[in-house]
Amino acid sequence: MKPRIVVFSGAGISAESGLRTFRDFDGYWHEYRIDEVATPEGFAANPELVLRFYNQRRHEVLAAQPNAAHHAIAQLERDYEVTVVTQNIDDLHERAGSSNVIHVHGEIIKGQSSINADLVVPLTKPDIEPGDLAPDGSQLRPHVVWFGEPVLRLDEAMEAISRADKMLVVGTSLSVFPVAGLVREAPAHAEKVLIALDVAHPPQDYQFLAGRATELVPPLVQRWRKERHDT
């Protein structure tokens, strides 16, 4: 059986593909009020605004390309059993070749029922418009976890992390809970590496490498793959 690697990724890795983050100094939350575009109440009050906001984000995702870090992570599957747990709503991991990706905050390239969060459908066009309906007849909305809604597949992510032999956390400041708490579920014996531009309080049992994912992830992946070939 191949050793298990879990990669936990955040907005920083997508930012290096040109996708703006939500929380950084130039992020979307400095232009939009969270309660207007990222809550069920905001959607109920002004669905046109919310749909337009996420349509713009979707176009940006579709125009972006996976970067060197995404591709390196996908290459790990040649030598390890890999699970990617991502806070990101884009599909850059999948487009780079990762086959087992857990999206805890949803996937912007999909839609869902506005009355049944379990009813998720692929989108047949890049925009969701008022009047576009889910199979249950409700207004279609983005498949994105909004504030006040439960994160997705949390138990599945926790199970994967609890069995990891190696843990790579990349592109996150570990400030978004409850998901950020998952990184502490890795076993004591696991090798743990955190790659990010800045983390206020890195977990003590992680090796913290400060820098860009595109610069630091590929050599780490190369080293881990070499370990497998040398054993």
Automatic annotation (TrEMBL):
Its main location: cytoplasm. Signal peptide: none annotated. One of its GO terms (molecular function) is protein-succinyllysine desuccinylase activity. The active site is at 105 (proton acceptor). Substrate binds at residues 54, 57. Residues 1-227 form the Deacetylase sirtuin-type domain. Its EC number is 2.3.1.286. 2 residues (Tyr-54 and Arg-57) present in a large hydrophobic pocket are probably involved in substrate specificity. They are important for desuccinylation activity, but dispensable for deacetylation activity. This is NAD-dependent protein deacylase. It comes from Lampropedia cohaerens. The gene is cobB.
